[in-house]
Amino acid sequence: MIPLTHFLVVGACLFAIGLYAVLARRNAILVLVGIELMINAAILNLVAFGRYDKTMYGGQVFALFAIVLAAAAVAVALAIILNVYKFYRSVNPEDIKNLKD
Amino acid sequence: MPQLLPDISTKLDHILAGLPVLLPEMVLTVTFLVSIGTGLFVDRWWKQGTFAVTVAGIILAGGYSILQLSQPTASDLLFGMLEADAFGRYTRVLTAAVCLLFVLFVHANQGFKAHPKKTADLYSILLAVHIGLNLMGMATSWLMVFVSIEMVSIGSYLMVGYLAKEARQTEAAMKYVLFGSVCSAVMLYGLSFLYGFTGNLDFTSAAHIQGLAATAPLLTAMALLFVFTGIGFKLSFVPFHFWTPDVYQGAPTPVTAFLSTAPKIAGVALLARILYAWPVESLAYQYLHTLILVSAIVTMLLGNLAALRQTYVKRMMAYSSIGHTGFLMMAVLAYSAGEYGVLLFYLSVYSLMNMGVFLFADYIESRTGATDVSEYNGLGPAMPVAFVGFVLLLISLTGIPPTSGFVAKLLVFTAVFGNWQLTGNPGMIILLIVGALTTVISLFYYFKIPLNAFLRKQEGSVDIRPTQSYLVLIATLTVLAVLLLGIFPDWLVGTFQK
Q1: Neighbours of B206 (CB within 10 A)
Q2: What separation in angstroms does the CA of B484 have from each of B124, B345, B479, B487, B488?
Q3: Would you tell me which of B29, B116, B126, B438 could form a disulfide with B304, CB atoms 3.0–4.6 Å apart?
Q4: What is the least distance, in Å, from the CA of B245 to any CA of chain A?
Q5: pLDDT band for position B335 (50/70/90)?
Q6: Is residue A101 part of a domain?
Q7: Any transmembrane segments, and where (chain B) (predicted)?
């Protein structure tokens, strides 16, 4: 059996990679990919911890909800990014800066 | 795998026993489904169909929430997902009121009226967000917290991007959705650790509190910080406020008004519920208390100082609402179990004032096209009703008597002072000083508007378009409410303390 620590380490790596993709901000779609990696890190943690919760399976249920909600959020985000592209002809967050102080 | 079949009937009974408390949410769910149908089929013959259905649904749900106010606390609903105590029930009523104002606002708004896709879908989105807000105010399980925050967030992204008529609106929506999704991903990661430490998702349960106490302090602190990010995004306090000015400026004005009020009501209720679910001497409580204290101080200072430099009205109001968030957090800290009256009063008055300010700003924009303070020059005498009401609301936002903004701030200061005398926490005195100081600072930027509108002259003639909207009527009603609550605060405070 794979010990819990291994899952947590993989989760932490995924989270860090996702965070890097978000902070690098090359392209709005890549930021979304980064967000997805971060969410998957959390889902992996939830399922790994859920193994030790034999009464309610809270972690597994939480993971299912998180997957559905992440998909909904990504659908909305893609629609919005498509609208941005219509106006700016770019999806690079660096180019899109009409609103600022 | 434990055998679930033998006790499935008791489990079903437990669920059914909790359903009457959730009647308002069920009404909203039905209205949501009906509104999709009317948007598709009825609006072709009767243009106001979805609008009428939405208003009826919100009023019905709000009515049921009011009827439930006097009922005793119902805890452990749906296996520890929700708890309907008096505080949660009041936030439900308050949310319904704000949603109703928002529907009327959208209905009267020029930009939405002229929109080719019509507003039926927006009403459906609003109803879903309303359900999310209600659940957020009553959630006691991390699962419910996450689901309700996401329901509200996804709906809000759609609202901001709904018109997508000009470049700035789409930009605001994109910034909002990217920032919001990152915050909720970080929050989910933190929640997964809290679940791992305690093996339990119900944050009010004894197992959860014991689990947190048994974990290494550094790990608890890290997980709580991550969770704090998600709530911070919804409430927009420092350092999670970056999206606020851009989104408030870019979004259609009714949506800005909604975002600056409704999610804050539910978010503050959630924050208070999490904080007071844990015993005072526990490390998790002390950690969260310090976090809220520090960010309240920084939020008040930064929000008000940054507002000084702004001239675009909606952007200025965005920073002002950040400043008010700091105040709300101060009210959360001052609130001790059971005395939620002060916090609820501040929330109600704040929602009225903010809704009113954006109603006036939208009315003035629809008639003159002015969006910047410098364009308000000389408009005061030309539109006396709108500007007198606007200035009264600004006076209330600053906190000058005889308006209800003054009473609300006074009550919060009194509660904070009482808390300091009780606990001797020096942080409370710092909060008090910063609160008073920022009230003075806020005077300078709020008064730019009357200064320009009444004392400066416009070059050339002012072009004022006629309008048929009832915006100014609703806005004037909010001003009246703000003034009346300033003179007779007992009407609300008395109700809350029953």
Answers
A1: 9
A2: 33, 13, 9, 5, 6
A3: B438
A4: 8
A5: confident
A6: no
A7: 15-42, 49-67, 87-108, 120-136, 142-164, 176-198, 218-243, 255-278, 284-305, 317-337, 343-364, 385-408, 428-447, 468-488
Q: Per-residue confidence at A69, pLDDT binned at 50, 70, 90?
A: very high
Query: Any chain A CB within 8 A of the CB of B222?
Result: no
Residue of chain A whose Cα is closest to the Cα of B146: A66
Instruction: Using the Cα atoms of residue B213, residue B215, residue B216 and residue B220 in order, give the sign of their dihedral.
Output: negative
The dihedral sign for the CA sequence B397, B402, B403, B407: positive
State the pLDDT confidence band at A13, using cuts at 50, 70 and 90: very high
DSSP letters of B130-198?
A: HHHHHHHHHB-BHHHHHHHHHHHHHHHHHHHTSS--SHHHHHHHHHHHHHHHHHHHHHHHHHHHHHHHH
Q: What is the largest CA-CA distance in chain B?
A: 82
- Which pLDDT score is estimated for B4? 67
The two three-digit tokens of residue B28, written as one number: 């909203």
DSSP state of B202: B
| The residue to which tokens 């969770």 are assigned | B227
> Could you tell me the residue ranges of all domains in chain B?
8-496
Question: How far is A29 from B289, CA to CA, in rounded Å?
Answer: 37
Among A62, A64, A82, pick the best mutation site for testing chain B contact (most B Cβ within 10 A): A62
Residue ranges with strand state E in B70-132: 74-77, 82-84
Query: Distance between CA B270 and CA B231 in Å, rounded?
Result: 8
The CATH number linked to A13 is: 1.10.287.3510
Consecutive H or E run containing B215? none
CA A70 centroid distance within chain = 7
Contact A65 B142 (CB under 8 A): no
The reply to whether omega before B279 is within 30° of 0 (cis) is: no
Closest CA to B485 of B324, B330, B381, B356: B356
ipTM of the complex, rounded to two decimals? 0.97
Pure H helices in chain A: 4-24, 28-50, 58-88
Mean pLDDT computed over B326-345: 85
Residue numbers of the domain that contains A52: 4-88
- Shortest CA gap A85–chain B (Å): 9
For residue B2, is pLDDT > 60? no
- Are the Cβ atoms of A99 and B146 closer than 8 angstroms? no
pLDDT digits (tens, 9 = 90+) for B25-60: 999 999 999 999 999 999 889 989 999 999 999 999
Confirm or reject contact between B3 and chain A (CB < 8 A): no
Say if residues B475 and B356 touch (Cβ distance below 8 Å): yes
Residue B477 and residue B393: Cα distance in Å, rounded?
11
Residue B336 has pLDDT above 70, yes or no: no
